[in-house]
Structure formats: C-alpha cells, structure tokens
Amino acid sequence: MKRPETPFPRHWIFYIVIKLLVIAGGTAFVLKYIGWW
Question: Which residues cross the membrane (predicted)?
C-alpha cells in the first residue's frame, strides 16, 4: 500500500487527522452560525 504524498510524508497520518479536525471544526462553526446547532 502506497502512502499518500503530503508535504511531510513521515507524518501523513497526523496530517490526515489535522485535516479532519479542521473540516469538522469548520462544519460545526457553519452549523452554529446558521442556527442548526
């Protein structure tokens, strides 16, 4: 299995986790902003 190419390949799992946290945070902010949550 080939590892995805990221700016820092050694920490690609960490990179994916950070990316998901940013997406989740952005989604939560938008939902709170429009009044769904």
Answer: 12-34
